[in-house]
Amino acid sequence: MSAPIDRALVPDGILALGAAGLEELAAQYGTPLFVYDEDDLRRRCREYAAHFGPDAVAYASKAFLCTAMARLVDEEALHLDVATGGELHVALHAGFPPERMVLHGNNKSEEELAAALDAGVGRIVLDSFDELDRLEALAAGRPTPPRVLVRVTPGVEAHTHVFIETGTEESKFGFTVSDGVARRAAQRVAESPVLAFAGLHAHIGSQVYVLESYRRAVDIVVALAAEIEGTGHAVEELNFGGGLGVRYLLDDPQREVADYAKTLHDALAEAASESGLTAVPRVMVEPGRSIAATAAVTIYRVGTVKEIPGGLTYVAVDGGMSDNPRPVLYGAGYEVYLPARIDEDRPLVCSIAGKHCEQGDVIISDARLPAGVAVGDLLAVPVTGAYGYSMASNYNKVPRPGVVFVKDGQARLVVRRETLDDLIRLDLP
Predict the structure, then answer these.
(1) Residue 226's domain spans which residues?
(2) Catalytic residue among 45, 66, 350, 357
(3) Model pLDDT, residue 311
């Protein structure tokens, strides 16, 4: 028999809310529903700030962003990483200070760059020579040169899924280090009369468990920084992105922010000494998943239990790939539990299926639940706070779920559930 779900995978505030509390939320706001533990979000922000310093941490908003989340990150005094004009717009709408924003993107349009310049975004991460041409043209004549980081691809294997591995030389992001392209890009920015060279950026991937991968990236990026310093240009900042892995499954490893910080800082000190770098740059990181993921659960309502004779048992819920595409995209795994029976053994092996017209719409293919799961049961999938709502869609014209923040047992709706009328709000006659 399978043991009850590990409570470490369920945020404390959600667990404390209990089955009755989740049922109440489901009744009030409908299902599927994303339920975040606000205290857990803040605790993780503060943990990063404690180990890196608040001025050295930018929350990667692509993991999860809404007005309330942007304001929470602002209240915790972190920076904010935005990757599109849309994310920038939401952050500005929330009143987030633009000088604490970092703009990413491998294909930033003129409109996005102009919006960032107009707003006074604190750092723009340069990703290509085409973008460098656009940025120089837009920055010409402005009173203050924008601060620019040059994104480099260090050629490091991050030991994660190929779709979320961004540091190899085949990546669509940044300038390669091995053939000198990154050095030439940095030198051009440093010599530009309308840009201010701030440093280098390197992100090796997402859901990274092997901390040694970060150490290798630091060695390569610091060596590049020493080369640039040798040409007479200071490298003030080294941004190593985010990507720290989180624990989705019972047998996944647990990676601590303290160990991650120690790895980066120790590697930087050693690499700086070995490379002869005279001015050691400040370190910045951009965590997203490791702040948001474990802070939330998604609750669903069971609609069908189908036993295939001699085969699988499907437990179908009222959501699926439109609120969590990660299993379809990456083969991502999750645990699951029934809030009303969280302490029971889970002998039933089943597949948690979504409601979409795709055979592949399976949230968990080898789930374990208590015996006797029935239509109408409330089911919860933990660790869905990152890349769930942010990647949600209206596939099959399914309205996107609502989002609730829970603090001290009190819930507040921060994103309302879409209505059927929302599905046609953009349609023309």
Answers:
(1) 38-289
(2) 357
(3) 87
